[in-house]
Each structure stands twice: as structure tokens, then as C-alpha cells.
Amino acid sequence: MSTLVKKQRDFHKLSKTWNVLFNLFAGIFAFLCVFPFIFVVIISFTDEGVLARDGYSLFPAKWSLSAYRYVFESGDMLLRSYGVTILVTLLGTLLSLLFISFYAYAISRKSFRYRNFFAFFAFFTMLFNGGLVPTYIIVTQFLGLKDTIWALVMPLAVNAFYIMILRTFYSTSVPDALIESGKIDGAGEFRIFLTLVLPLSLPGLATIALFSTLGYWNDWFNALLYIDDPNLVPLQSMLMRIETSMQFIMQNSTNSSLSLEALRSMPQDTSRMAMVVLATGPIIFAYPFFQRYFIQGLTVGAVKE
């Protein structure tokens, strides 16, 4: 019997050679995932003239900060756009977690009488919507949110797909025995959710928080529709406006008052890469914090028998 158990343990144990090969494969795959962003960072620090002459290179002949200098020439507007984006992302993510977690928990409970109706109500919005014009009229005229922070927050606050994901997580990961034990102890629905369900839901909530954060951080379309105040323009929309202005100058260089030398020195390609770095850098550094909660939430909570 002991020999059989030992053979089973040896079968599930990788040899040193296979362990090295799998680690090497994982390392190469991780490098291929990270390499494009590293290459974009290198290009953003490359001199525009060297880039036009030699093309893209991992080791450019001349480094330059002209691309970032050109982007930051907008002065306080870029920093203000960063502040608006950070505020919208934090506020929107918190509201999304609040609305989606409550909604998904309600339709995941079999004791809720109208769970099928509200589940279908959320699912129906994934198939059909009112269209752009009715949405614009509701946001600007009916709700009066034009040129406010809430015009950037509320349209993305509730996502039916995220509701379905979290509902499935509640149904499969939160045992009914845990909720029944809370009811036996005299706890209400709200207290059961906060003290019993919420600690078990950290992996699902962290996933939804990451999705919502990415959605708010990368959103520029709502700003294009609802924001005319330059003090409320988010980062993505501001970078798009800088890019549009630069393209307009280059396409109309013959009618421009700028000199030919100034037009040639304009960091057209490198500034695009600098914008990518400025737009994606903060969210890349924020991802490890969500990853920590993925791992931590897996071991929280248990049902005692």
C-alpha cells in the first residue's frame, strides 16, 4: 500500500528537467507579454530625427525627452486631466462595486421572489439598448449631467455583464448553509452580506473592480459627448486632443506660421508613444494591488460543520 502511495506521489511530482523547461517557457511567455510596452517606452525616449533616419531600434543612437516635453507643454491642463481621471476612476469604481454587488447578490438568492425578473431585466440590456441619441438626451436634458463629473461616472456605473459574473460567483462560492447560520443567529440581510458574504467575495469583487477601473481609466467617449468644460476633460480625451492638434498642424504645414525646421523637429511619432506611456503607466502599476486581493480572498471564510 505504501509503495502505491509513493508511486502516486512520484507521478504528480515533476522532474528537475521538466521543472526547468516549464519555468523557462513561462519566463519567455511573460517576457513576450511585457516586451511591447518596454519597446514603446524606449521609442518614447528616442530622438525624433534618429527615429526618422534609423527606424525603430532597441538601442537608439540618441535619446531625447522632446516627446514628453511636447506633451507637457500643455501646462497645468495635463495635470488637471490626470486629477479628473483619478477622481472619476476611484469614485466610479466604488459606486460600481456598490451597485453591482448588491444587485448580483439579490438575484443570486433563491429566496428572493423576483430574482428571475431582475435577472432578465439586466440580461435584456446586454442585447438591446436605447441608442446614442436617447442616451444623450437623458443624460444632458433629463438628468442635467452635462459638464459635470457625474456625466463621466454614471454611464459606466452599472454593467450587466459584470452583474452576471458576480451573480454566478455568489451562487457557486457562497454556500446557503452560511447564510442560514446567519439568519439563525438573528442577523438581517444587510448584516449577513457585510459580515459573512463580503469576506468570501473578495476574489469576485476584485475582478469586477479591476474591470471597472480599466473601463473608467480608458474612457474618452463620454467626455467627447458630455464634457465641454476644459477643467473637466479626463486624461484620455486630453491626449486625444493633443494628438488631433498635432496632426492638424502637420497636415496644414504649408499654411502654418511655423517654420519648416520647427515642423520637422516636432516629435510626431515619439509623442504618440509618450502618450501611450502616460496613459497606461499608472494602471499597470495599480494591477499588482488587485492581484494581491485575488490571492488573499481565496482563503477567507469557511463553513463549519
TrEMBL record:
Keywords (A to Z) from UniProt: Cell membrane, Membrane, Transmembrane, Transmembrane helix, Transport
Record field: transmembrane: 20-45, 82-105, 117-143, 149-170, 190-217, 273-290
Gene3D superfamilies per UniProt: MetI-like
Annotated ranges, domain ABC transmembrane type-1: 82-279
Leader sequence segment: none
Pfam families in the record: BPD_transp_1
UniProt entry tagged with the keyword tRNA processing: no
Localization: Cell membrane
InterPro entries: MetI-like, MetI-like_sf
Source superkingdom: Bacteria
Recorded GO CC terms: plasma membrane
One GO term (biological process): transmembrane transport
Membrane topology qualifier: Multi-pass membrane protein
Family, similarity comment: Belongs to the binding-protein-dependent transport system permease family.
Name of the featured protein: Sugar ABC transporter permease
